[in-house]
Design a protein that fits this description.
The complex is a heterodimer of chains A (263) and B (289). In chain A, strands 6-7-8-3-9-10 form a six-stranded mixed beta sheet, with helices on both faces. Helix content of chain A is 29%, strand content 22%. Chain A contains nine helices and ten strands. Chain A is globular, with a radius of gyration of 18 Å. Chain B is mainly alpha-helical and 289 residues long. Chain B has one domain: Orthogonal Bundle (ABC transporter involved in vitamin B12 uptake, BtuC), CATH 1.10.3470. Chain B is built from eleven helices and two strands, in the order ααααββααααααα. In chain B, β1 and β2 form a beta hairpin. Chain B is globular and about 60 Å long. Classes of the chains: A alpha/beta (263), B mainly alpha (289).
Protein backbone atom coordinates (compact mmCIF):
# COMPACT_ATOMS: atom_id res chain seq x y z
CA UNK A 1 0.00 0.00 0.00
CA UNK A 2 1.38 3.32 -1.03
CA UNK A 3 1.21 6.03 1.62
CA UNK A 4 -0.09 9.39 0.56
CA UNK A 5 2.20 11.96 2.11
CA UNK A 6 -0.35 14.74 2.00
CA UNK A 7 -4.06 14.50 2.50
CA UNK A 8 -6.48 16.29 0.23
CA UNK A 9 -7.51 19.80 1.07
CA UNK A 10 -10.97 19.92 2.65
CA UNK A 11 -13.60 20.46 0.01
CA UNK A 12 -17.23 21.46 0.28
CA UNK A 13 -19.12 19.45 2.85
CA UNK A 14 -17.25 20.29 6.01
CA UNK A 15 -15.10 18.09 8.21
CA UNK A 16 -18.04 15.93 9.33
CA UNK A 17 -19.24 15.00 5.89
CA UNK A 18 -19.47 11.29 5.27
CA UNK A 19 -17.16 9.87 2.62
CA UNK A 20 -19.97 9.30 0.15
CA UNK A 21 -19.62 9.90 -3.56
CA UNK A 22 -20.19 13.64 -3.16
CA UNK A 23 -18.22 14.07 0.06
CA UNK A 24 -14.78 15.41 -0.72
CA UNK A 25 -13.12 14.61 2.59
CA UNK A 26 -11.10 11.53 3.38
CA UNK A 27 -12.09 10.85 6.93
CA UNK A 28 -9.97 7.75 7.34
CA UNK A 29 -7.21 6.06 5.41
CA UNK A 30 -9.71 3.37 4.40
CA UNK A 31 -12.17 5.78 2.86
CA UNK A 32 -12.10 5.66 -0.90
CA UNK A 33 -11.60 8.69 -3.08
CA UNK A 34 -13.44 9.05 -6.36
CA UNK A 35 -10.52 7.38 -8.08
CA UNK A 36 -8.00 5.03 -6.52
CA UNK A 37 -5.01 3.80 -8.47
CA UNK A 38 -3.15 1.19 -6.50
CA UNK A 39 0.18 -0.33 -7.42
CA UNK A 40 -0.24 -0.09 -11.17
CA UNK A 41 2.62 -1.45 -13.23
CA UNK A 42 1.99 -1.43 -16.93
CA UNK A 43 3.45 -0.66 -20.31
CA UNK A 44 3.38 -1.48 -23.99
CA UNK A 45 4.54 -4.93 -25.00
CA UNK A 46 7.85 -5.54 -23.28
CA UNK A 47 8.32 -1.86 -22.49
CA UNK A 48 7.31 -0.96 -18.97
CA UNK A 49 6.13 2.63 -18.55
CA UNK A 50 4.71 2.60 -15.00
CA UNK A 51 6.21 1.00 -11.91
CA UNK A 52 3.94 0.44 -8.89
CA UNK A 53 2.14 3.77 -9.25
CA UNK A 54 -0.48 4.62 -6.66
CA UNK A 55 -2.57 7.73 -6.32
CA UNK A 56 -6.02 8.81 -5.32
CA UNK A 57 -8.30 11.64 -6.36
CA UNK A 58 -11.15 12.94 -4.29
CA UNK A 59 -14.35 14.21 -5.75
CA UNK A 60 -14.24 17.89 -6.67
CA UNK A 61 -10.47 18.01 -6.61
CA UNK A 62 -7.99 19.11 -9.27
CA UNK A 63 -4.97 16.86 -9.43
CA UNK A 64 -2.03 17.91 -11.56
CA UNK A 65 0.23 15.12 -12.78
CA UNK A 66 3.50 16.57 -13.95
CA UNK A 67 6.68 15.11 -15.26
CA UNK A 68 9.08 15.23 -18.15
CA UNK A 69 8.52 13.69 -21.55
CA UNK A 70 8.35 9.91 -21.16
CA UNK A 71 7.73 9.97 -17.41
CA UNK A 72 4.60 7.87 -17.85
CA UNK A 73 1.95 10.58 -17.53
CA UNK A 74 0.00 9.67 -20.64
CA UNK A 75 0.31 5.97 -19.81
CA UNK A 76 -1.21 6.70 -16.41
CA UNK A 77 -4.15 8.47 -18.04
CA UNK A 78 -4.60 5.62 -20.50
CA UNK A 79 -4.72 3.20 -17.59
CA UNK A 80 -7.36 5.33 -15.88
CA UNK A 81 -9.54 5.81 -18.97
CA UNK A 82 -9.26 2.21 -20.13
CA UNK A 83 -7.21 2.46 -23.32
CA UNK A 84 -4.73 0.36 -21.36
CA UNK A 85 -6.14 -2.32 -19.11
CA UNK A 86 -4.65 -3.78 -15.95
CA UNK A 87 -5.79 -6.06 -13.16
CA UNK A 88 -9.31 -5.23 -12.09
CA UNK A 89 -8.64 -4.13 -8.52
CA UNK A 90 -5.71 -1.83 -9.26
CA UNK A 91 -7.99 0.91 -10.60
CA UNK A 92 -11.11 1.71 -8.64
CA UNK A 93 -13.69 4.33 -9.51
CA UNK A 94 -16.23 5.29 -6.88
CA UNK A 95 -15.33 2.11 -5.03
CA UNK A 96 -15.83 -0.11 -8.04
CA UNK A 97 -12.93 -2.06 -9.58
CA UNK A 98 -12.65 -1.05 -13.23
CA UNK A 99 -9.12 -2.10 -14.22
CA UNK A 100 -10.30 -4.51 -16.91
CA UNK A 101 -13.20 -2.42 -18.18
CA UNK A 102 -12.79 -1.14 -21.77
CA UNK A 103 -12.62 2.60 -22.37
CA UNK A 104 -16.08 2.97 -23.87
CA UNK A 105 -17.69 1.49 -20.76
CA UNK A 106 -15.73 3.76 -18.45
CA UNK A 107 -17.21 6.75 -20.27
CA UNK A 108 -20.64 5.55 -19.19
CA UNK A 109 -19.41 5.40 -15.59
CA UNK A 110 -18.17 8.96 -15.79
CA UNK A 111 -14.52 8.92 -16.85
CA UNK A 112 -13.62 10.95 -19.94
CA UNK A 113 -10.23 11.62 -21.46
CA UNK A 114 -9.34 14.66 -23.53
CA UNK A 115 -6.45 13.05 -25.39
CA UNK A 116 -3.04 14.45 -26.11
CA UNK A 117 -2.97 15.95 -29.57
CA UNK A 118 -6.70 16.74 -29.23
CA UNK A 119 -7.78 14.09 -31.77
CA UNK A 120 -10.93 15.91 -32.82
CA UNK A 121 -12.84 14.17 -35.62
CA UNK A 122 -11.57 16.14 -38.63
CA UNK A 123 -14.32 15.35 -41.12
CA UNK A 124 -17.12 16.09 -38.66
CA UNK A 125 -18.36 19.59 -37.95
CA UNK A 126 -17.78 21.19 -34.56
CA UNK A 127 -21.40 20.55 -33.69
CA UNK A 128 -21.16 16.90 -34.72
CA UNK A 129 -17.96 16.50 -32.72
CA UNK A 130 -19.84 17.68 -29.65
CA UNK A 131 -22.75 15.36 -30.37
CA UNK A 132 -20.39 12.40 -30.71
CA UNK A 133 -18.88 13.45 -27.39
CA UNK A 134 -22.32 12.88 -25.92
CA UNK A 135 -22.67 9.42 -27.47
CA UNK A 136 -22.82 7.65 -24.09
CA UNK A 137 -23.63 10.71 -22.06
CA UNK A 138 -24.75 10.53 -18.49
CA UNK A 139 -27.34 12.97 -17.22
CA UNK A 140 -25.71 16.15 -16.06
CA UNK A 141 -25.19 19.83 -16.60
CA UNK A 142 -23.26 19.76 -19.88
CA UNK A 143 -24.95 20.24 -23.22
CA UNK A 144 -24.05 21.76 -26.58
CA UNK A 145 -25.34 25.17 -25.53
CA UNK A 146 -23.49 24.99 -22.23
CA UNK A 147 -20.23 24.15 -24.02
CA UNK A 148 -20.82 27.07 -26.37
CA UNK A 149 -21.17 29.26 -23.30
CA UNK A 150 -17.95 27.88 -21.83
CA UNK A 151 -16.00 28.40 -25.04
CA UNK A 152 -17.55 31.35 -26.90
CA UNK A 153 -14.91 30.99 -29.60
CA UNK A 154 -16.65 27.78 -30.75
CA UNK A 155 -19.95 29.59 -31.16
CA UNK A 156 -19.39 30.86 -34.70
CA UNK A 157 -17.62 27.64 -35.76
CA UNK A 158 -20.41 25.16 -35.12
CA UNK A 159 -20.92 24.21 -38.77
CA UNK A 160 -17.26 24.23 -39.68
CA UNK A 161 -15.32 20.99 -40.17
CA UNK A 162 -13.03 20.43 -37.22
CA UNK A 163 -10.07 19.94 -39.58
CA UNK A 164 -10.19 23.64 -40.43
CA UNK A 165 -9.92 24.82 -36.83
CA UNK A 166 -6.80 26.34 -35.30
CA UNK A 167 -4.93 24.42 -32.61
CA UNK A 168 -6.50 26.43 -29.81
CA UNK A 169 -9.98 26.03 -31.26
CA UNK A 170 -9.43 22.29 -31.62
CA UNK A 171 -8.30 22.06 -28.00
CA UNK A 172 -11.39 23.96 -26.83
CA UNK A 173 -13.49 21.59 -28.95
CA UNK A 174 -11.73 18.54 -27.53
CA UNK A 175 -12.42 19.70 -23.96
CA UNK A 176 -16.01 20.55 -24.82
CA UNK A 177 -16.44 17.18 -26.50
CA UNK A 178 -15.14 15.47 -23.38
CA UNK A 179 -17.56 17.43 -21.20
CA UNK A 180 -20.52 16.39 -23.37
CA UNK A 181 -20.39 12.95 -21.73
CA UNK A 182 -21.01 14.67 -18.38
CA UNK A 183 -18.01 13.00 -16.75
CA UNK A 184 -17.50 12.88 -13.01
CA UNK A 185 -13.78 12.66 -13.70
CA UNK A 186 -12.26 14.50 -16.63
CA UNK A 187 -8.71 13.70 -17.67
CA UNK A 188 -6.89 16.44 -19.56
CA UNK A 189 -3.76 15.31 -21.36
CA UNK A 190 -1.28 18.05 -22.35
CA UNK A 191 -3.79 20.80 -22.94
CA UNK A 192 -1.07 23.36 -23.54
CA UNK A 193 1.02 21.33 -25.96
CA UNK A 194 1.91 23.30 -29.06
CA UNK A 195 -0.31 26.27 -28.22
CA UNK A 196 0.60 29.92 -27.79
CA UNK A 197 0.77 30.97 -24.12
CA UNK A 198 -2.09 33.42 -24.54
CA UNK A 199 -4.29 30.62 -25.89
CA UNK A 200 -3.30 28.35 -23.01
CA UNK A 201 -4.22 31.04 -20.49
CA UNK A 202 -7.59 31.40 -22.21
CA UNK A 203 -8.26 27.64 -22.08
CA UNK A 204 -7.25 27.39 -18.44
CA UNK A 205 -9.82 30.05 -17.59
CA UNK A 206 -12.45 27.41 -18.31
CA UNK A 207 -11.16 25.09 -15.59
CA UNK A 208 -12.74 26.77 -12.55
CA UNK A 209 -16.09 26.75 -14.35
CA UNK A 210 -15.75 23.05 -15.13
CA UNK A 211 -14.96 22.26 -11.50
CA UNK A 212 -17.86 24.46 -10.38
CA UNK A 213 -20.20 22.04 -12.16
CA UNK A 214 -18.96 19.26 -9.90
CA UNK A 215 -16.42 17.66 -12.22
CA UNK A 216 -13.19 16.29 -10.81
CA UNK A 217 -10.09 16.93 -12.88
CA UNK A 218 -6.76 15.27 -13.50
CA UNK A 219 -4.52 17.55 -15.49
CA UNK A 220 -1.40 16.17 -17.09
CA UNK A 221 1.17 18.72 -18.17
CA UNK A 222 4.77 19.09 -19.11
CA UNK A 223 4.34 22.82 -18.65
CA UNK A 224 4.38 23.00 -14.85
CA UNK A 225 3.34 26.63 -14.37
CA UNK A 226 -0.27 26.45 -15.55
CA UNK A 227 -1.03 23.14 -13.94
CA UNK A 228 0.41 23.99 -10.56
CA UNK A 229 -1.47 27.29 -10.52
CA UNK A 230 -4.90 25.63 -10.71
CA UNK A 231 -4.21 22.34 -8.94
CA UNK A 232 -5.29 21.35 -5.44
CA UNK A 233 -2.66 18.66 -5.39
CA UNK A 234 0.38 17.69 -7.43
CA UNK A 235 1.77 14.30 -8.30
CA UNK A 236 5.15 14.24 -9.94
CA UNK A 237 6.17 11.27 -12.08
CA UNK A 238 9.73 10.39 -12.95
CA UNK A 239 10.57 7.45 -15.15
CA UNK A 240 7.30 5.73 -14.35
CA UNK A 241 7.38 6.23 -10.60
CA UNK A 242 5.66 8.68 -8.27
CA UNK A 243 8.46 10.75 -6.76
CA UNK A 244 6.59 13.64 -5.21
CA UNK A 245 3.06 14.34 -4.00
CA UNK A 246 1.65 17.31 -2.19
CA UNK A 247 -0.35 20.50 -2.19
CA UNK A 248 1.15 23.29 -4.29
CA UNK A 249 1.87 25.40 -1.21
CA UNK A 250 3.67 22.52 0.46
CA UNK A 251 6.15 21.71 -2.24
CA UNK A 252 8.82 24.11 -3.32
CA UNK A 253 9.86 24.90 -6.84
CA UNK A 254 13.18 23.24 -6.05
CA UNK A 255 11.45 20.03 -5.01
CA UNK A 256 9.41 20.04 -8.21
CA UNK A 257 12.47 20.70 -10.34
CA UNK A 258 14.32 17.91 -8.60
CA UNK A 259 11.43 15.52 -9.11
CA UNK A 260 10.96 16.66 -12.69
CA UNK A 261 14.53 16.18 -13.77
CA UNK A 262 15.49 13.47 -11.33
CA UNK A 263 18.37 15.42 -9.80
CA UNK B 1 -28.93 7.07 -80.98
CA UNK B 2 -27.50 3.65 -80.34
CA UNK B 3 -24.81 5.30 -78.26
CA UNK B 4 -27.38 7.10 -76.19
CA UNK B 5 -29.01 3.77 -75.57
CA UNK B 6 -25.65 2.39 -74.42
CA UNK B 7 -25.25 5.24 -71.98
CA UNK B 8 -28.76 4.72 -70.60
CA UNK B 9 -28.28 0.97 -70.24
CA UNK B 10 -24.88 1.58 -68.64
CA UNK B 11 -26.36 3.97 -66.10
CA UNK B 12 -29.05 1.44 -65.25
CA UNK B 13 -26.41 -1.26 -64.83
CA UNK B 14 -24.49 1.17 -62.63
CA UNK B 15 -27.33 1.07 -60.13
CA UNK B 16 -26.61 -2.61 -59.55
CA UNK B 17 -22.86 -2.01 -59.29
CA UNK B 18 -23.46 0.73 -56.73
CA UNK B 19 -25.50 -1.69 -54.62
CA UNK B 20 -22.56 -4.09 -54.70
CA UNK B 21 -20.10 -1.35 -53.90
CA UNK B 22 -21.84 0.63 -51.14
CA UNK B 23 -21.23 -1.91 -48.39
CA UNK B 24 -17.65 -2.39 -49.43
CA UNK B 25 -17.03 1.33 -49.20
CA UNK B 26 -18.80 1.54 -45.83
CA UNK B 27 -16.75 -1.12 -44.09
CA UNK B 28 -13.50 0.06 -45.57
CA UNK B 29 -14.33 3.57 -44.40
CA UNK B 30 -15.35 2.57 -40.89
CA UNK B 31 -12.78 -0.11 -40.06
CA UNK B 32 -10.25 -0.11 -42.91
CA UNK B 33 -11.23 -3.68 -43.67
CA UNK B 34 -10.69 -4.89 -47.22
CA UNK B 35 -13.37 -7.52 -47.61
CA UNK B 36 -12.32 -9.95 -50.33
CA UNK B 37 -15.35 -12.13 -49.61
CA UNK B 38 -17.82 -9.36 -50.45
CA UNK B 39 -18.76 -10.82 -53.84
CA UNK B 40 -19.15 -14.33 -52.45
CA UNK B 41 -21.29 -13.03 -49.62
CA UNK B 42 -23.60 -11.45 -52.20
CA UNK B 43 -23.86 -14.86 -53.84
CA UNK B 44 -24.69 -16.36 -50.48
CA UNK B 45 -27.66 -13.99 -50.46
CA UNK B 46 -28.68 -15.07 -53.98
CA UNK B 47 -28.60 -18.73 -52.93
CA UNK B 48 -30.48 -17.92 -49.74
CA UNK B 49 -33.19 -16.33 -51.88
CA UNK B 50 -33.21 -19.46 -54.04
CA UNK B 51 -33.86 -21.57 -50.94
CA UNK B 52 -36.60 -19.29 -49.69
CA UNK B 53 -38.42 -18.68 -52.98
CA UNK B 54 -39.00 -22.37 -53.71
CA UNK B 55 -40.72 -23.63 -50.55
CA UNK B 56 -42.56 -20.38 -49.77
CA UNK B 57 -43.59 -19.98 -53.40
CA UNK B 58 -43.08 -16.25 -53.39
CA UNK B 59 -41.67 -13.76 -55.87
CA UNK B 60 -37.91 -13.21 -55.43
CA UNK B 61 -38.60 -9.52 -54.86
CA UNK B 62 -40.52 -10.41 -51.72
CA UNK B 63 -37.79 -12.74 -50.54
CA UNK B 64 -35.41 -9.75 -50.40
CA UNK B 65 -36.72 -8.60 -47.03
CA UNK B 66 -36.08 -11.94 -45.38
CA UNK B 67 -32.74 -12.45 -47.14
CA UNK B 68 -31.50 -9.00 -46.12
CA UNK B 69 -32.41 -9.69 -42.52
CA UNK B 70 -30.73 -13.12 -42.52
CA UNK B 71 -27.57 -11.91 -44.22
CA UNK B 72 -27.34 -8.82 -42.00
CA UNK B 73 -27.56 -10.95 -38.86
CA UNK B 74 -24.96 -13.27 -40.37
CA UNK B 75 -22.78 -10.23 -41.04
CA UNK B 76 -22.99 -9.08 -37.44
CA UNK B 77 -22.06 -12.52 -36.14
CA UNK B 78 -19.29 -12.87 -38.72
CA UNK B 79 -17.78 -9.57 -37.63
CA UNK B 80 -18.11 -10.06 -33.87
CA UNK B 81 -17.22 -13.71 -33.90
CA UNK B 82 -14.45 -13.76 -36.46
CA UNK B 83 -13.27 -10.65 -38.29
CA UNK B 84 -12.95 -8.44 -35.19
CA UNK B 85 -10.19 -10.76 -34.04
CA UNK B 86 -8.26 -10.17 -37.26
CA UNK B 87 -8.54 -6.37 -37.14
CA UNK B 88 -5.20 -4.74 -36.52
CA UNK B 89 -3.39 -1.63 -37.70
CA UNK B 90 -1.88 -3.85 -40.34
CA UNK B 91 -4.50 -4.60 -43.04
CA UNK B 92 -2.95 -7.94 -43.96
CA UNK B 93 -4.64 -10.22 -41.38
CA UNK B 94 -8.13 -9.18 -42.49
CA UNK B 95 -7.19 -9.48 -46.16
CA UNK B 96 -6.06 -13.04 -45.52
CA UNK B 97 -9.07 -13.82 -43.33
CA UNK B 98 -11.58 -12.59 -45.90
CA UNK B 99 -9.66 -14.28 -48.72
CA UNK B 100 -9.98 -17.51 -46.79
CA UNK B 101 -13.64 -16.82 -46.14
CA UNK B 102 -14.15 -16.27 -49.86
CA UNK B 103 -12.70 -19.70 -50.65
CA UNK B 104 -14.74 -21.36 -47.92
CA UNK B 105 -17.98 -19.82 -49.16
CA UNK B 106 -17.28 -20.72 -52.79
CA UNK B 107 -16.57 -24.34 -51.91
CA UNK B 108 -19.53 -24.64 -49.57
CA UNK B 109 -21.83 -23.31 -52.28
CA UNK B 110 -20.26 -25.68 -54.78
CA UNK B 111 -20.79 -28.58 -52.39
CA UNK B 112 -24.40 -27.75 -51.62
CA UNK B 113 -25.68 -26.28 -54.89
CA UNK B 114 -23.27 -27.83 -57.45
CA UNK B 115 -21.54 -25.88 -60.21
CA UNK B 116 -24.68 -25.65 -62.32
CA UNK B 117 -25.98 -22.18 -63.04
CA UNK B 118 -29.09 -21.17 -61.16
CA UNK B 119 -31.45 -18.26 -61.56
CA UNK B 120 -34.24 -16.50 -59.73
CA UNK B 121 -37.46 -16.16 -61.68
CA UNK B 122 -39.25 -12.90 -61.02
CA UNK B 123 -41.84 -13.41 -63.71
CA UNK B 124 -42.65 -11.28 -66.76
CA UNK B 125 -41.29 -8.09 -65.22
CA UNK B 126 -37.84 -9.34 -66.11
CA UNK B 127 -38.46 -8.86 -69.82
CA UNK B 128 -40.93 -5.99 -69.90
CA UNK B 129 -39.61 -2.65 -71.04
CA UNK B 130 -40.64 0.94 -71.34
CA UNK B 131 -40.27 1.88 -74.99
CA UNK B 132 -38.98 5.44 -75.41
CA UNK B 133 -38.08 5.49 -79.11
CA UNK B 134 -37.50 2.78 -81.67
CA UNK B 135 -33.94 2.32 -80.50
CA UNK B 136 -34.22 3.14 -76.84
CA UNK B 137 -36.19 1.16 -74.35
CA UNK B 138 -35.77 0.99 -70.63
CA UNK B 139 -36.28 -2.36 -68.99
CA UNK B 140 -38.52 -2.29 -65.96
CA UNK B 141 -36.25 -4.52 -63.98
CA UNK B 142 -33.04 -2.46 -64.53
CA UNK B 143 -35.09 0.62 -63.68
CA UNK B 144 -36.33 -0.96 -60.45
CA UNK B 145 -32.72 -1.88 -59.67
CA UNK B 146 -31.52 1.68 -60.17
CA UNK B 147 -34.37 3.18 -58.15
CA UNK B 148 -33.74 0.69 -55.35
CA UNK B 149 -30.06 1.56 -55.42
CA UNK B 150 -30.75 5.29 -55.18
CA UNK B 151 -33.24 4.78 -52.36
CA UNK B 152 -30.84 2.52 -50.43
CA UNK B 153 -27.91 4.90 -50.88
CA UNK B 154 -30.08 7.85 -49.88
CA UNK B 155 -31.16 6.00 -46.74
CA UNK B 156 -27.54 5.10 -45.97
CA UNK B 157 -26.46 8.71 -46.40
CA UNK B 158 -29.29 9.89 -44.15
CA UNK B 159 -28.34 7.30 -41.55
CA UNK B 160 -24.70 8.35 -41.58
CA UNK B 161 -25.46 12.06 -41.44
CA UNK B 162 -28.42 12.32 -39.16
CA UNK B 163 -28.42 9.56 -36.58
CA UNK B 164 -26.43 9.03 -33.41
CA UNK B 165 -25.00 5.74 -34.66
CA UNK B 166 -24.30 7.26 -38.07
CA UNK B 167 -22.20 9.98 -36.46
CA UNK B 168 -20.45 7.28 -34.44
CA UNK B 169 -19.62 5.51 -37.72
CA UNK B 170 -18.07 8.65 -39.15
CA UNK B 171 -16.23 9.46 -35.94
CA UNK B 172 -14.80 5.94 -35.83
CA UNK B 173 -13.79 6.30 -39.47
CA UNK B 174 -11.88 9.48 -38.57
CA UNK B 175 -10.20 8.16 -35.46
CA UNK B 176 -11.02 4.81 -33.93
CA UNK B 177 -9.26 5.37 -30.61
CA UNK B 178 -10.77 8.81 -30.05
CA UNK B 179 -14.18 7.33 -30.83
CA UNK B 180 -13.74 4.80 -28.04
CA UNK B 181 -13.00 7.69 -25.72
CA UNK B 182 -16.45 9.05 -26.57
CA UNK B 183 -18.02 5.88 -25.22
CA UNK B 184 -18.43 4.23 -28.61
CA UNK B 185 -18.13 0.44 -28.46
CA UNK B 186 -16.10 -0.14 -31.60
CA UNK B 187 -16.58 -3.94 -31.60
CA UNK B 188 -20.35 -3.53 -31.68
CA UNK B 189 -20.09 -0.71 -34.20
CA UNK B 190 -17.97 -2.87 -36.52
CA UNK B 191 -20.56 -5.62 -36.25
CA UNK B 192 -23.27 -3.14 -37.14
CA UNK B 193 -21.25 -1.83 -40.09
CA UNK B 194 -20.82 -5.35 -41.43
CA UNK B 195 -24.51 -6.06 -40.92
CA UNK B 196 -25.47 -2.97 -42.91
CA UNK B 197 -22.85 -3.65 -45.58
CA UNK B 198 -23.98 -7.23 -46.08
CA UNK B 199 -27.64 -6.24 -45.88
CA UNK B 200 -27.09 -3.93 -48.83
CA UNK B 201 -25.04 -6.43 -50.80
CA UNK B 202 -27.75 -9.03 -50.16
CA UNK B 203 -30.15 -6.86 -52.14
CA UNK B 204 -27.53 -6.69 -54.89
CA UNK B 205 -27.11 -10.46 -54.80
CA UNK B 206 -30.82 -11.15 -55.20
CA UNK B 207 -31.09 -8.57 -58.03
CA UNK B 208 -28.14 -10.21 -59.71
CA UNK B 209 -29.86 -13.56 -59.39
CA UNK B 210 -32.97 -12.15 -61.07
CA UNK B 211 -31.02 -10.33 -63.78
CA UNK B 212 -28.83 -13.24 -64.81
CA UNK B 213 -27.87 -16.75 -63.88
CA UNK B 214 -25.26 -17.39 -61.26
CA UNK B 215 -23.03 -20.16 -60.03
CA UNK B 216 -20.66 -20.43 -57.04
CA UNK B 217 -17.67 -19.04 -58.92
CA UNK B 218 -18.99 -15.63 -60.02
CA UNK B 219 -18.38 -13.87 -56.68
CA UNK B 220 -14.84 -12.60 -57.29
CA UNK B 221 -15.85 -10.84 -60.53
CA UNK B 222 -18.58 -9.04 -58.57
CA UNK B 223 -15.97 -8.03 -56.03
CA UNK B 224 -13.76 -6.51 -58.70
CA UNK B 225 -16.61 -4.50 -60.24
CA UNK B 226 -17.57 -3.31 -56.77
CA UNK B 227 -14.03 -2.21 -56.00
CA UNK B 228 -13.76 -0.45 -59.32
CA UNK B 229 -16.97 1.44 -58.64
CA UNK B 230 -15.68 2.48 -55.20
CA UNK B 231 -12.29 3.62 -56.50
CA UNK B 232 -13.74 5.48 -59.48
CA UNK B 233 -16.26 7.26 -57.28
CA UNK B 234 -13.82 7.97 -54.47
CA UNK B 235 -13.63 6.41 -51.03
CA UNK B 236 -15.95 7.65 -48.35
CA UNK B 237 -18.49 9.19 -50.69
CA UNK B 238 -21.86 7.45 -50.93
CA UNK B 239 -22.95 9.33 -54.05
CA UNK B 240 -19.48 8.97 -55.52
CA UNK B 241 -20.04 5.22 -55.33
CA UNK B 242 -23.25 5.56 -57.33
CA UNK B 243 -21.56 7.70 -59.98
CA UNK B 244 -18.59 5.30 -59.99
CA UNK B 245 -20.94 2.38 -60.58
CA UNK B 246 -22.67 4.26 -63.38
CA UNK B 247 -19.44 5.23 -65.12
CA UNK B 248 -18.27 1.64 -64.88
CA UNK B 249 -21.59 0.44 -66.28
CA UNK B 250 -21.47 2.95 -69.16
CA UNK B 251 -17.88 2.00 -70.00
CA UNK B 252 -18.79 -1.68 -70.03
CA UNK B 253 -21.87 -1.21 -72.23
CA UNK B 254 -20.03 1.00 -74.71
CA UNK B 255 -17.12 -1.43 -74.76
CA UNK B 256 -19.47 -4.32 -75.39
CA UNK B 257 -21.10 -2.33 -78.17
CA UNK B 258 -17.75 -1.94 -79.95
CA UNK B 259 -16.99 -5.59 -79.56
CA UNK B 260 -18.88 -8.08 -77.43
CA UNK B 261 -15.61 -9.17 -75.83
CA UNK B 262 -14.55 -5.69 -74.80
CA UNK B 263 -17.21 -4.88 -72.24
CA UNK B 264 -15.40 -5.89 -69.09
CA UNK B 265 -12.08 -4.71 -70.52
CA UNK B 266 -13.44 -1.20 -71.14
CA UNK B 267 -14.54 -1.06 -67.50
CA UNK B 268 -11.08 -2.06 -66.31
CA UNK B 269 -9.45 0.53 -68.59
CA UNK B 270 -11.66 3.29 -67.18
CA UNK B 271 -10.74 2.14 -63.69
CA UNK B 272 -7.03 2.22 -64.52
CA UNK B 273 -7.38 5.65 -66.11
CA UNK B 274 -9.01 7.01 -62.94
CA UNK B 275 -6.29 5.42 -60.82
CA UNK B 276 -3.62 7.16 -62.90
CA UNK B 277 -5.28 10.55 -63.32
CA UNK B 278 -7.21 10.88 -60.04
CA UNK B 279 -5.99 8.17 -57.68
CA UNK B 280 -8.28 9.33 -54.89
CA UNK B 281 -11.34 8.96 -57.09
CA UNK B 282 -13.68 11.51 -58.54
CA UNK B 283 -15.60 12.41 -55.38
CA UNK B 284 -13.28 11.50 -52.52
CA UNK B 285 -14.10 12.87 -49.10
CA UNK B 286 -12.28 16.18 -48.86
CA UNK B 287 -11.03 15.85 -45.31
CA UNK B 288 -8.81 12.94 -44.46
CA UNK B 289 -8.49 11.53 -41.01
Amino acid sequence: MHAHPVEAAPAAGGPNASPGPRGGVRTSPLAEGLLEVEGVSTGYGSFRALFDVSLHVDEGEILAVIGANGAGKSTLLKTICGLLRTEDSTVRFDGRPIGTLPAHKRVGLGISLVPEGRLVFPSLTVHENLLVGGHSRRTGPWSVSKVRELFPLLDRLMDKQAAHLSGGEQQALAIGRGLMANPRLLLLDEVSLGLAPIVVTELYKAIPRIVAEGTTLIIVEQDIGQAVAVADRIVCLLEGRVVLQGRPDEVTREQISAAYFGI
Amino acid sequence: MAWLNDVIQGILLGGLYALFAAGLSLIFGVMRLVNLAHGDLSLLAAYAALLIVGPLDINPFLSIFLVVLLVAVFGYILQRGFLNFALEDDPMPTILATFGLSIVIQNLLLEVFSANSKGLDAGTIETQALKITDQISIGWFPLITLVTSVVVLFALQLYLNRTRMGRAFRATSDNQEAAQLMGIDNRHLYGLAMAIALGIVAIAGVFLGIRTTFNPSVGPARLIFAYEAVIIGGLGSVWGTLVGGMLLGVAQTIGAHLDPGWGVLAGHLLFLAVLVLRPRGLFAKQVQA
